[in-house]
Design goal:
The protein is of the alpha+beta class. Helices cover 61% and strands 18% of the residues.
Length: 375
């Protein structure tokens, strides 16, 4: 029972200060982001209210990125307060070993790690998607609709639905519907579409044609978009005999709506890596984002453990200002080292898993050595 009470007491101290630090950091980041968005207010239909809504929707993403540094600062302040009030000393005098205190901290860290992993897999990707959709639509950078069933765009008399847009602009799960006088004439589904020489190459195609008397289905292994459109009604350029083929979807449109790998969930990143590898395409950038996504929740636990040596080493000395400074410096070093290794991985062909996990392992080793020397 004493161990359960100790876990809750230490966990509550860490949790409250960590959440307070996180709220402060996110609030500051949001204020600066809002000020930056004011530069675009007035363009299209982008108002102050839309900018505020956009910044609000990006809060889960900011919280996800700032969570590990916030936990480090919160742990230093929370455990530092226990040390300054001699509560850790009383615990040790009552027979509570350093290992039991560490165990209570680790239990709290595991809970926080699971919490931020849940946010990164569910809330953040959806909120980021809605935020970008709102901003780009308000700025009138594209004329399309993105919802729970993918991206919808209009191409002449055809309506195109795209399930997934990969970073190299490969389209997955493409559906095309052609109408004439509000009547469906043709439905096409393609497993994928690749941008090739200013045209789209559709692959694994199923074409369903409808008329007043019958319905026919045709399967085609691959076909370019221009070749496909020319099989049907085409539009001639005004004043000439040149045939005009409307685009399937503009690459500029895809640039404006394609999500960055960092904002996707680990599950979607894994699916993209598997697809790229199956098709012998370069998957390093997506692999790196996947491993960074895996490492981010783990860094929460490592940051907690990293705070313990400083708390044990100075249970009576050093005020809050010193602990904040230590936490900020450690957080900055971790972020810089992490960014450096990820960039080196892309530039020099290093293993994405190694570059994403190496800073984490390095800080874990430092934390373990520090804990052994101070307990």
């Amino acid at each position: 029972m004493m161990l359960g009470t100790l876990d809750r007491y230490i966990g509550r101290s860490i949790l409250l200060t960590s959440l307070l630090v996180l709220m402060t950091l996110v609030a500051l980041a949001s204020i600066f982001a809002f000020i930056s968005e004011l530069d675009d207010v007035g363009k299209g239909s982008y108002t102050v209210g839309a900018a505020a809504q956009y910044v609000f929707l990006t809060i889960p993403g900011k919280a996800y990125l700032l969570f590990a540094p916030a936990v480090l600062l919160g742990s230093l302040l929370g455990l530092g307060a226990l040390a300054s009030n001699s509560e850790l000393t009383v615990m040790r005098a009552a027979g509570v070993s350093g290992g039991r205190i560490i165990r209570a901290v680790v239990i709290t860290g595991v809970g926080l790690m699971l919490l931020i992993a849940l946010v990164g897999e569910t809330i953040m990707p959806k909120a980021e998607q809605i935020a970008e959709e709102l901003r780009l639509t308000a700025l009138e950078k594209r004329l399309s609709v993105k919802g729970t069933r993918g991206l919808w765009v209009k191409s002449a008399d055809r309506f195109v639905n795209i399930g997934t847009v990969l970073p190299d602009f490969t389209l997955l799960d493409v559906s095309i519907h052609r109408f004439n006088d509000n009547t469906l004439q043709e439905a096409i589904s393609a497993a994928r579409a690749r941008l090739q020489d200013d045209d789209w190459l559709l692959e694994d195609i199923e074409i369903t044609s409808l008329n007043d008397t019958q319905l026919t289905t045709e399967r085609v292994e691959s076909m370019t978009w221009q070749s496909f459109v020319r099989r049907n009604t085409v539009t001639r350029t005004e004043g000439s005999d040149e045939v005009s083929v409307p685009e399937l979807v503009s690459a500029d449109v895809l640039k404006s709506i394609s999500a960055s790998p960092e904002s996707l969930s680990a599950r979607h990143l894994y699916d993209q890596v598997r697809y790229l590898k199956d098709n012998q395409l370069d998957s390093r950038r997506i692999e790196l984002a996947f491993w960074v996504k895996i490492a981010s929740p783990l860094s929460t636990l490592v940051m907690l453990m990293l705070s313990l040596p400083f708390v044990f080493a100075s249970q009576r000395s050093g005020g809050a200002g010193q602990k904040i400074f230590i936490g900020i410096m450690l957080g900055i070093i971790y972020v810089l080292l992490n960014r450096l290794l990820t960039q080196l991985a892309l530039a020099n062909g290093l293993s994405p898993a190694l570059s994403a996990l190496l800073p984490l392992v390095g800080f874990l080793v430092v934390a373990i050595i520090g804990i052994k020397r101070t307990t």
